Amino acid sequence: MLAFIGLLPFYGRLEDSGRVWWLWTCLAGFGLGLFGLEYCRRRRNRRREGKPLAI
User: Fold this and answer.
1) What pLDDT digit, counting tens, does each position of 35-53 carry?
2) Where are its TM segments located (predicted)?
């Protein structure tokens, strides 16, 4: 998220050089990271409860 926010002031320069995708890559990485954290948290809690893991 910090990289996304850090690149926002340079949006015009990124657009001129054809590298706007850097901005969206940062945002996608943040979103996938949140998904991964939630997945790991749920998996840990299910293992603590002794329930079988869904495949």
Assistant:
1) 999 999 999 999 998 877 6
2) 20-40
